[in-house]
Amino acid sequence: MNVMLRIVVSSLVLLAGACASTTPTSSQARAAAAQPAWRDANEVVGGTGLFVVRYRTAPLTIPMNAEFAIRAWVFAANDREHPLDDVELAVDAAMPEHKHGMARTPRVERRSDGSFGISGMLFHMPGRWELYFDVTREALTERAQTRVELE
Amino acid sequence: MELRRGLSIAIVVTASAVSAQDAEPAAQRLSEFRAQVDGLADPAAAIAFATQSPRGSLVGWIVVEAQGRRVQVLDGEGNRAKEAEEWEYFVNESFELVEPSGITQTLDGRLCVSDSGSHCVTFGGGLCLGGRGTAPGEFNTPRGICIAGEKLYVADSRNDRVQVLDLDGKPLFVIGSRGTSEGHFLAPLDVAVDAEENVYVADSDNHRVQKFDSHGAFLKTWGDFGSYPGQFASPTSLDVVGERVYVVDRENHRVQVFDREGAWLYEMGVHALLPREGQGKIHYPDAVAVSADGTRMLVCEGFENRAQIFGIQPPLDPNEPPPIPQERNIAAHYGPEVGAAGNLIAVLEPGASTLALFRTELPEPVQITSIGIHGTRSGELLRPYDAAIDLERKRIHVSDPANARLSTYAIVGDFEGELKNDPYLLAFARSLDFVKLHELGKDLGARWLIEPEAIALDAHGRLYVCDPRNLEVWIVDADFKLVGKLDTGTDPFVAPAGVAVHPDGRVFVVDRLSGRVRVFGTDGRASGDFARDGLIAPSGLAVDHAGRVWVSDRATAMLACYSAEGALLERVGAPGLAPDQYFKPRGLAVDGRGELVVLDWGNHRGVLRGIEGDSAGRIVGWFGSRLFTRELREQKR
Q1: How do residues B353-365 score in pLDDT, each as one tens digit?
Q2: Shortest Cα distance from B429 to chain A (angstroms)?
Q3: B627, containing H or E segment
Q4: ipTM score for this prediction
Q5: What contacts B171, CB < 8 A, 6 or more positions away?
Q6: Which of A21-25, B67-71, B171-175, B511-515 comes out lowest in average pLDDT?
Q7: At A146, which helix (H) or strand (E)?
Q8: What share of chain A is helix, strand, coil (3-state, %, to 5)?
Q9: For B38-99, where are the alpha helices, taking DSSP H only?
Q10: For testing the chain A interface, which of B428, B442, B449 should be mutated: the one with the most A CBs within 10 Å?
Q11: Please, what is the Cα angle at B351 between B297 and B437, to 5 degrees?
């Protein structure tokens, strides 16, 4: 199925290097190892500017009507070098124009490297989706959201 | 006290104590309209009684009026029982009710009333069981009550539990606590007991009925939010007679009937088609009482200040299919509060759990977006109550008492350019969860979970949050940190219902049950009050650009305008649909043009009233259902 992902949010950073498929040399591998894991990730800022979420989908191109996964990191907006370990993350998606969400509930688990692994995502139809990252610290939850056009 | 006094009738049996035998044949439906009782002052609950007369056994009703602060006795056809007037007088003198909301009686005929205003349950004679608190035997806003045998069951709504006491008020055991899982409650509003002492609870904000055994052990639950048969939108009351459970499904404008295992049997009630229409049409029913023999049902409609009596529908033609349940549309009812700023009006649709945003450039404000869906997750709403627009930060705050949450929606689209509907104009941005704050012990020592209802914004982006559970007004700063509360000194709030901020920084709070407006200085301390005795059921509050204070009064359908110092400047409005008429007005706000936005709750509409300059006293805009705005539209022509 010929499905294409278009990300149309200005805050999102998708580096071209993410698509490189050549075999790295050892020096490149060392350099890569020195890079943080979120190096190529998309970035989206929370609705009131408290948190920043960086994320990467797997596969990079979100498939239609097939499961995909997300790896995400959460940062304080004023410190984008150190992922926060005192926050909770919930992930969801919806199609506001259709007034429905996903037909399933994704699972979120915290990993020891400071990232969150999200599995069970599925966009079951083409159109405009909104991807929601809800970051909770104590009693405050802030949403970072981005738009996904699935064709 | 016994109803025998002055009535010359004998209590035969209460509805809740009837034997388990099925009083109704399987096909029997209590849906034939018999009578309408108008002129009740917010009837909140009722019980049926049977009297002996020369004509045999007759059904009658005892109704409690929350706003009227009294009980009334009606005969079976809804007429005032003249022979009961002396008894009524005696009872009302003896009970001294503040806001009665539930009624029951003992087998020997003693009347018992719950009073959500004084947080107690009373048998009259100055004896008050309970008082406001969390300990066993104490209550916070007790609502429906029921006596079975020697046990008194109380829907202790703002403690999110049902308490079981003996008839002397000694606590026996507690059922449930706050939550959404089985056996837990969100705002339990009524309780009933069957002949086997199984307990049924109207778990209102969870939109379900729960059943427990006589020891309080969970048995089963049924229902969920929705409008299909078997679903509920705010079940507020129930009664059990024989094998049947009658449940008031308030925002679906119907009564649903189940067997004792929760199997759906039938529903009755058709939403009013015309304003104030009754005669069998039901509008926001609050309570139900069924006679012990299962032949009569009384439905209280506090919203309409009336009750209706139904009897057994004549048997259906067996060759005809049974009635098809009416399609329900639970959206498009606005309120209770409203927010406005600049060219925007923010309105809640509690039945649909959404926030709707209007622009005011045209005489009839145009809805440009809506957001929200029913639920408990972030961005979702359970019972949206009030909205405050922060144009400077492009945010709209929404209070949701059922989720115990403040939510903020960011304005991310254009709200000043081309007039159009934009489903992406608003995006959920953040929320403050008072449940978590309470669990963390960071709610500044609040005794109860904070329940945010009316809210107002000051020039610094701070929110003032009315909390009817703690009887406080909390202050939340622009970063959504709970930073304090208004200091009432030695004169606590009775029921803070509306709040507004004066341009000079003073805060005004309307205290519903004490009928006055409280004033707080910029230091947050009480500095005075006004309007004592001038308001019956004050609700909404707004301060206009000139610093005048506007208060809506549900009881009189009037708006009162005071100077900031408390001098009454004018009273406007009257009950009705015509221009400058209202029905149970609630929320007030002032938009950027200085017009007063009135959430005319009982008329399902919003009204923009000019209050300064050339437009003063004129209705300059409106929004809402066509039927309820027709007369305004015709005036404009």
Answers
A1: 999 999 999 888 9
A2: 4
A3: helix B626-636
A4: 0.89
A5: B136, B137, B163, B164, B165
A6: A21-25
A7: strand A140-150
A8: 10, 45, 45
A9: 85-95
A10: B428
A11: 110
Assessment of whether the complete model's pTM goes beyond 0.80: yes
Comparing C-alpha atoms, which of A138, A42, A24, A134 is closest to residue B479?
A138
Could you report the per-residue pLDDT of A70-115, keeping only the tens digit for each? 999 999 999 999 999 999 999 999 998 888 899 999 999 999 999 9
Pick from A77-91, B23-37, B253-267, B371-385: least confident: B23-37
Is a pLDDT exceeding 50 seen at residue B370?
yes
Q: Which residues lie closer than 8 Å to B226 by C-beta, 6 or more apart?
A: B207, B232, B233
What region does B589 belong to: left with phi over 0, alpha with psi -120 to 50, or beta?
beta
Q: Would you state the pLDDT for residue A8?
A: 38
Percent of chain B with pLDDT over 70: 93
Least Cα separation, residue B416 to chain A (angstroms): 21
**A139, B434: Cβ pair inside 8 Å?**
yes
Please determine, for residue B187, whether its predicted confidence score (pLDDT) is greater than 80.
yes
Sheet holding B482-485, edge to edge: B455-457, B463-467, B472-476, B482-485
Sign, Cα dihedral of B70, B71, B75, B76: positive
B344's CB contacts (< 8 A; 6+ apart) are: B357, B358, B359, B360, B389, B391, B415, B591
Positive or negative CA dihedral for B65, B68, B70, B72?
Answer: negative
Closest CA relative to residue B338, chosen from B312, B357, B353, B362: B357
In a mutagenesis test of the A interface, which of B369, B376, B378 is the best target, namely the one with the most A β-carbons within 10 Å?
B378
d(CA B490, CA B260): 49
- Per DSSP, the residues of B493-558 read -S-EEEEEE-TTS-EEEEEGGGTEEEEE-TTSBEEEEE-TTT-SSEEEEEE-TTS-EEEEETTTTE
Distance CA B19, CA B21 (A): 6
pLDDT at B550 over 90: yes
**What count of residues does chain B have?**
637
- Flag whether residue B169 sits within 8 Å of chain A, measured between CB atoms: no
Cis peptide before B336 (omega within 30 of 0): yes
Could you tell me if B200 and B241 are in contact, meaning their C-beta atoms sit under 8 angstroms apart?
A: no
- Residue holding tokens 């004050």? B538
Arithmetic mean of pLDDT, B110-118: 96
Which residues in chain B have their CB less than 8 angstroms from residue A145's CB? Answer: 427-428
Asked if B373 reaches chain A (Cβ–Cβ under 8 Å), the answer is yes
Decide: B629 and B576 in contact? Cβ < 8 Å.
Answer: no
Nearest to B378 among A99, A139, A141 (CB): A141
Instruction: Identify the sign of the CA torsion B273, B276, B279, B285.
Output: positive
Q: Tell me which residue in A99, A139, A143 faces B429 most closely, judged by beta carbons.
A: A143
Average pLDDT, chain A: 84
